[in-house]
Amino acid sequence: GYLIYDASNDSISAIPCIPPGTCRTTAMGFQSAVVMCGATGEGGYLLAELVWVCTQDSQAALWLWESSAKQWDVKLRDLPLPPGTTAFNFSVHSCFSFGGSFLCWVDLHRGMLLCDLRKDCNFSFIELPQGPPDYDASDYPHGPCAEEFRSVACVHGSVKFLAFNTFVEREPGETFGLAVWTLSPDHSAWSRSYKCSFGDIWANANFQSAGLGQLSPSFPVLSIHQDGVVYLVVNDTSAVGRRLVFNARYLLRVDMGSNNDVQVYQQKTTRIRSQLFASEFSAHRRQEHPREMESSEFGASGKRMKA
Questions:
Q1: What is the pLDDT of residue 306?
Q2: Which pLDDT tens digit goes with each residue over 7-50?
Q3: Is the separation of the CB atoms in 231 and 274 below 8 Å?
Q4: Is position 207 within any domain?
Q5: How many CB atoms lie within 10 A of CB 244?
Q6: Which domain holds residue 74?
Q7: DSSP label at 291?
Q8: What is the full DSSP assignment across 182-224?
Q9: Nearest CA to 199 among 236, 235, 245, 165?
Q10: Measured between alpha carbons, how far is 265 from 182 in angstroms, rounded to an integer?
Q11: What would the pLDDT profile of 225-267 be if each residue is shown by its tens digit?
Q12: 147: DSSP letter
């Protein structure tokens, strides 16, 4: 089943599992459930779960739970996947809602599926501004995963794509770095909004004062309430014999809209859960308790490094 936390009134609701259907279904990845607030009127919400129909290459079942109706409804849809993409190789890495009527499921390798609730749950497919990475995931069973170098989120109503230019063809003379693209309001094209090289990060005084040398960041995450702000993870490790030793982990806050300003936060934990600090819940908590969030965001879980 599902647990829905309503931060506006500090309540939790339990929702039953999707009822067994007449056809076999399978999950589309590690996370494929989306919640949209206000979709059913003031104070209401909509829960959507997208699952593959096992007997079809591109057919999916969209299960919808409206808080006002308190029951599941299902809609079968043929998904407009590009040639060569089927249920077997489209895997959801992240999902979210935006625009009051759109649900989005993202495969960071292949693209995004958009569902427009106002058009009878019509689906469309959006290619990412960077093509599929040129590494074979099967060659890295414990190595690079999509979240290590890409992410997608809705920032102030606009869908944005953040990525390192690794595993893709770079422009002539282009150095390693990261960039943010913004999807147009009609979902027809991407435009590059921000760009930052690793050299810009390494040259920052705060980064240098942390003594991180030229360690490469990973796991880029977009701030959903501050346009141009991204978060990166830096792992400080060393090799002792044939063993890799973990020394420390740092969280970087990079303001790409403010001359690539960098803030460095040393973390106490050995694992940073990016889904939590990039969630709508975090944004709500910031709005309701700004002082609490300013004092605790990232700095409370570790030491902020200053020049």
A1: 45
A2: 777 788 899 988 876 566 777 776 788 888 876 666 688 999 99
A3: yes
A4: no
A5: 10
A6: 1-127
A7: H
A8: EE-TTSS-EEEEEEEEHHHHHTSHHHHHTT-TTPPPEEEEE-S
A9: 165
A10: 27
A11: 889 999 999 988 877 888 878 888 899 999 998 889 999 998 8
A12: G
Q: Is residue 281 part of a domain?
A: no
- Whether 94 has a pLDDT exceeding 70, the answer reads yes
Mean pLDDT over residues 110-133, rounded?
91
Report the number of distinct structural domains present in the chain.
Answer: 1
Q: What share of the chain is helix, strand, coil (3-state, %, to 5)?
A: 15, 45, 45
Nearest Cα to 81, choosing from 49, 58, 105, 106? 58
What predicted TM-score, i.e. pTM, was given to this entire model?
Answer: 0.83
Give which of 153, 155, 176 is closest to 165, Cα–Cα.
Answer: 176
pLDDT of residue 147: 85
Per-residue model confidence (pLDDT) at position 206: 95
Is 88 a member of any domain? yes
- Answer for the pair 165, 197: CB distance below 8 angstroms, yes or no: no
Contacts of 55 (CB under 8 A, 6+ apart): 23, 24
Going from the C-alpha of 207 to that of each of 16, 198, 212, 232, the distances in angstroms are 47, 11, 7, 12
Tell me the pairing of strands 33-37 and 45-53.
antiparallel
pLDDT at position 297 is 41
- 72 phi, psi to nearest 5 deg: -85, 140
- pLDDT reported for residue 294: 35
Q: Torsion over CA of 295, 299, 300 and 301, rounded to 10 degrees?
A: 150
Q: What letter does residue 92 receive in the DSSP assignment?
A: B
Please calculate the CA angle 189-103-112 and round it to the nearest 5 degrees.
Answer: 45
Q: Is residue 75 part of a domain?
A: yes
User: How many angstroms separate the CA atoms of 36 and 66, rounded?
Assistant: 10
Tokens representing 302 are 């570790």
Whole-number Å distance between alpha carbons of 279 and 283: 7
* 299, 292 contact by CB (below 8 A): no
Mean pLDDT across the chain: 81
Mean pLDDT for 115-144 is 79
